[in-house]
């Protein structure tokens, strides 16, 4: 998708629809690795694309690809949601949004969440990483972004992203328990 098209997703429905279809699967995967509630996953996915529509005019192709930009938005949306849930100030808004998801959508999200169960176990091991190391590892190893796109999403230099990624990979190998060979194998493939 070109930067011209990305800048139009906030005002031209066809441009938004193309952008959404291109990226919805990867964003749903990103979110499903972080939450285990299909209603919340649907709400957060919608919030990511709404934020993308509202900020499309600020997209700058020189700072990374549209995918990297969108993953940066998704990270912010997930972080904001975690803060909201910690304060419990937005419970009514999330509950009201759940009525918009039909049974077929819930089943698909439930399947995706089940498929990402092992990833959530890896996230438990990743809790030992610093926030900076964890962020770059998630974007590169789990979400498939290049180091340059991850750096753009995190608003850091690519050199810093590479250093953080190296430290994160080493720390993950050190932290993963030998008693969980399936997780060690899965994390080695992801890393």
Automatic annotation (TrEMBL):
DNA-binding: present as a keyword of the record? yes
One of its Pfam families is Sigma70_r4_2
Q: Name one GO biological process term.
A: DNA-templated transcription initiation
Please verify whether the record's keywords include Transcription: yes
What keywords are assigned to this protein? Answer: DNA-binding, Sigma factor, Transcription, Transcription regulation
- Entry's InterPro entries? RNA_pol_sigma-70-like, RNA_pol_sigma-70_dom, RNA_pol_sigma70_r2, RNA_pol_sigma70_r4_t2, RNA_pol_sigma_r2, RNA_pol_sigma_r3/r4-like, WH-like_DNA-bd_sf
Q: What is this protein called?
A: RNA polymerase, sigma-24 subunit, ECF subfamily
């Amino acid at each position: 998708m070109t930067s011209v098209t990305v800048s139009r997703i906030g005002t031209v429905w066809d441009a938004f629809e193309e952008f959404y279809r291109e990226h919805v699967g990867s964003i749903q995967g990103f979110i499903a690795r972080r939450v285990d509630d299909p209603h919340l996953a649907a709400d957060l996915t919608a919030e990511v694309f709404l934020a993308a529509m509202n900020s499309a005019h600020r997209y700058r192709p020189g700072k990374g690809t549209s995918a990297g930009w969108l993953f940066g938005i998704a990270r912010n949306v997930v972080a904001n949601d975690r803060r909201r849930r910690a304060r419990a100030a937005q419970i009514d808004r999330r509950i009201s949004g759940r009525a918009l998801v039909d049974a077929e959508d819930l089943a698909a999200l439930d399947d995706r969440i089940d498929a990402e169960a092992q990833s959530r176990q890896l996230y438990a091991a990743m809790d030992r990483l610093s926030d900076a190391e964890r962020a770059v590892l998630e974007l590169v190893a789990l979400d498939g972004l290049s180091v340059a796109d991850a750096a753009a999403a995190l608003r850091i230099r690519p050199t810093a992203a590479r250093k953080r990624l190296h430290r994160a990979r080493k720390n993950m190998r050190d932290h993963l328990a030998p008693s969980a060979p399936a997780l060690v194998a899965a994390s080695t493939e992801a890393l």
